[in-house]
Amino acid sequence: MKHRILLVEDNDRLAGMLRSFLESLGHEVRALADAETAIALLGKEKFDLLVLDLKLAGMNGVELLQRVRRNPELKELPVIIMTGVFRGEGYARAAAKLGIKAYLEKPFGKDAFLEAVGAALAPPPGRRELSAMLLDLYHGGKSGVLQLGGGTRVVFLAGEPASFSSPGFVPFLVAEGHLLRGDLEKYPLSRPGKMPLCEAGLLSYDELQEQSRLFLSKVLIEAVLQNQTPQFLPDAGPIEPPLTPLSLPRLLYQAARQGADRFGADSFLNRSEALYPLRTGGYFRLANLLGLGPEEIGVLEQLGQGKSVREIFASAPPARPAWFLDFLVRLGMVELAAGPAEDRDAGFPQKMLFNRPIEEVVEVEVQGMNFDDLVDELSDSIDLAVGETGMAAPLSASEIDFEQEVQRDYAAIQNKNYYEIFGLSQANFSFASLKESYFSKTRQYSPEKFMQLSGDTLSRAQDVLSHYANAYNTLSSVIAKERYDEMLNANVIGLGGRQEDALQARIQFQSGKVFLEMEDYNNAERALQDAYTLDAEDSQTSAYLAWSIYKNPANHGSQVALEKCRMLLSKSLQMGRSAEAFAFRGCMLLDEGRDGLAEGEFQKALRLSPQERHALGGMRLIRERREAEKKGLFKRIFG
């Protein structure tokens, strides 16, 4: 089905690629580079999907998303977020509160992008039908086949997922970097199914089992969150190996947790606040299967004390744990009664409850606090706002507006080197002081607060957090710190925008080269990957990153890593003829026993740099091999 998609991305090259992907599927695409034009176009034309980069010049993507959600006509518009700045689950959860369909961290693959687009454009049927079906399968211990969208078949044995077959599994492996398309063409699978991947040597059996479990969890959780209505057939039929059993209670818990931001807490509490949760026998049987977090355990610890729902959530933000109580009710672990009553017994002895020793589950006593203690505690939290005169009284840190804190921090980092940002100097530097200062400064920049900002303040908050992260990562690495100190002493340091990225790229590149000389290939690959992320168009960085990946023992035997090395070296040579790139390619060919081709690469390197040590060493090894071959031939001829 054809859809109209608005793509907002200021990287022309990436925008062109994404547009071609979408148009190849028959979609109509409008591509824009700025948020102002996008918001104007959204007010005039109708789109089925918005694909949005968060970091844009002028109005940024977060502010555009906020405006879209405040517009009654656009608040239901599906949105996919792309970002190379805000990484991590915390930012994804915060963005989810604004109703996004997918959160893609750059770099991402074509398959992952198109999968997100397909999911965002899929029509949502009713949710509770699938949840109820899965619970019915589990409680009834039923066996059979659950047919999901996209041709995926999930085999259930005794009420739990045990195996699957899906045309999406191989694309999943490719998207996750566990298979190469070239390998699939070179080593075509002998028959349908997953086991031929092992038979062809493309995956080990352990890898196949692990990736099968991850894929099966992913598709089932997505099916629950997307409210699919699959068909269940009671005849399991043939079961495709390997078996990949999953715990259905844990899987449903993970799905409920991921969908917590969309849970109607107010509606649930209005219906249930006067009721009393009672623990059932299922509570004791299932509590150790769920792998709960501290927030959920906090809810469990309040059960069995004769409290109503209203009393349980009286001292906590109800929107957060309310979804969990609803989940316990739906799973049959808790019943909601009209009045207080005794919980049911477990019926069997237990050493652990929700994976903690029974004796540790005790009520924490509230310690008394006298007036002097209260004064001491409050005095520790006092923080003066900017300015020294004309203030009637100091403000506590929690009372200072977050936007004021951002402006203050932004002003404080201007024209300061990395040491000065943290109140340190080269002379008094210590890792303990650096760590303490870094976490003190960044603790206030939570994902939830970020999503409340807009305009210039958000851009400045991004810059502040980026400076803090770059400064901390540089000074906490011995090698990177040495390179930074050299640049600092040479007076080549400057902060701000692209200059900051260029500085970080230089530091990480130089650090990576030092790690290579030390034969610390793991850290070399990490540093050079960071440099490449910051400046992917530098030919030297591409070449050295390829070499670090090739030399890293952790990558030995990985066809994916080898193909990445070749790609990076080809890219390096396309951007600029470099002696190192020719030499590194020659060494790889030499290891493959292709001496003639390797010699040609070494000669190209030496024409550019007569002292290139890898090329000189490679030529010397080729001569030694040829001399050995001559001696062997002479010996065979003349005895």
UniProtKB/TrEMBL annotation:
Keywords in alphabetical order: Phosphoprotein, TPR repeat
Q: Enumerate the spans annotated as Response regulatory domain.
A: 4-121
One Pfam entry for this protein is Response_reg
J domain spans which residues?
Answer: 417-488
Question: Origin, by domain of life?
Answer: Bacteria
Say yes or no: keyword Nucleotide-binding present: no
One GO biological-process annotation of the entry reads: phosphorelay signal transduction system
Question: What residues bear 4-aspartylphosphate in this entry?
Answer: 53
TPR repeat residues = 505-538, 579-612
In terms of SUPFAM superfamilies, this protein maps to:
Chaperone J-domain, CheY-like, TPR-like
This chain's protein is named: Response regulator receiver protein
The organism encoding this protein is Geobacter sp. (strain M21)
